């Protein structure tokens, strides 16, 4: 497993991170979730990403139990704040009240004294940015988080937050966007701005929630137990990608992957990692073998012919509009 710096910071993270967005506490049972975490550790993954809102807090709890007993200094644990964690009007957003209460709740569920990275899960238009950044600064100065990041912020929002962080003298080092060969909306604006500011991308859905593995085929029912059959949450997120033209384009990648000596999943993860502004690609899994297969993409270099072939296959279906990076207009 290779490691990269998180943005321009001194923190090294595994270039493949393990995340538990819609698996732990939701799609898979705890025994399977723990087995996936153990597989991640076995292949050299040291970076683990979660959020307080995943599965109503259960994802953090499961991850905390799965990592218990590991040497804390040998791990990088990331979590996030923004989405609702309770029924009250202040159980959400990036207000000072919610941030200060949420960091303590997350640390309790994760069974740790600090997180390496605390991330704003979306931009909050209902709270002054100054209030949010001051709260993050206090979290850092209290020792409860070492670095600050954001998720799915636009280029202008990243710049505004970064500038305030400089004034507050706290390390704003990362953005966590969706990014894959099918979803390239960060390339036009977010990536150039991030390179200028020294902000690294910790990207989610590098295999487009499984679509880039080739397991979904035109005219065939999704495999039993796959994300597309998970009516609790997964099927909703993947539905926009389950179009015939997308699946047909992905099928064209099979000979490209064979040429590169990779599985389709490995090809998709390796493609993301060719972007040098990407500090890590987050993988999720419901089975340990998925972790091992995806992790094998670490360190793989794709030659120019392979990159061109991927572009040619997906050109008509890849989304590139930077306006697709959005946060809720109102408090969720």
UniProtKB/TrEMBL annotation:
Keywords: NADP, Oxidoreductase. InterPro entries: K_chnl_volt-dep_bsu_KCNAB-rel, NAD(P)_OxRdtase_dom_sf, NADP_OxRdtase_dom. Residues 15-314 form the NADP-dependent oxidoreductase domain. It comes from the Bacteria. Belongs to the shaker potassium channel beta subunit family. PANTHER family: HYPERKINETIC, ISOFORM M. Pfam families: Aldo_ket_red (PF00248). This is Aldo/keto reductase family protein. The keyword NADP applies.
């Amino acid at each position: 497993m290779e490691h990269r710096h998180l943005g321009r910071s001194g923190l090294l993270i595994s270039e493949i991170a393990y995340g538990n967005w819609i698996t732990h506490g939701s799609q898979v049972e705890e025994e399977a979730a723990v087995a996936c975490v153990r597989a991640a550790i076995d292949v050299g993954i040291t970076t683990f990403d979660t959020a307080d809102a995943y599965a109503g807090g259960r994802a953090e709890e499961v991850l905390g139990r799965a990592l218990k007993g590991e040497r804390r200094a040998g791990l990088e644990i990331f979590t996030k704040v923004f989405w609702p964690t309770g029924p009250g009007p202040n159980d959400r957003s990036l207000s000072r009240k919610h941030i200060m209460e949420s960091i303590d709740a997350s640390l309790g569920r994760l069974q740790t004294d600090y997180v390496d990275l605390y991330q704003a899960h979306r931009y909050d238009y209902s709270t002054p940015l100054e209030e949010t950044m001051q709260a993050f600064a206090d979290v850092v100065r209290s020792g409860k988080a070492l670095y600050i990041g954001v998720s799915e912020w636009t280029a202008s929002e990243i710049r505004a937050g970064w500038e305030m962080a400089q004034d507050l003298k706290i390390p704003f080092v990362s953005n966590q966007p969706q990014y894959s060969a099918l979803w390239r909306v960060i390339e036009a604006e977010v990536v150039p701005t991030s390179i200028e500011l020294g902000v690294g991308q910790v990207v989610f859905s590098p295999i487009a929630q499984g679509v880039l593995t080739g397991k979904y085929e035109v005219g065939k029912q999704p495999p039993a137990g796959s994300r597309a059959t998970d009516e609790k949450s997964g099927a909703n997120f993947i539905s926009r990608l389950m179009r015939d033209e997308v699946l047909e384009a992905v099928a064209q990648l099979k000979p490209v992957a064979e040429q590169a000596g990779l599985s389709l999943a490995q090809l998709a993860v390796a493609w993301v990692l060719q972007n040098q502004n990407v500090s890590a690609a987050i993988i999720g899994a419901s089975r340990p073998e998925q972790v091992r297969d995806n992790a094998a993409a670490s360190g793989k270099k794709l030659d120019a012919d392979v990159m061109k072939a991927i572009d040619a296959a997906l050109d008509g279906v890849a989304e590139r509009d930077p306006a697709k990076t959005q946060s809720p207009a109102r408090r969720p």
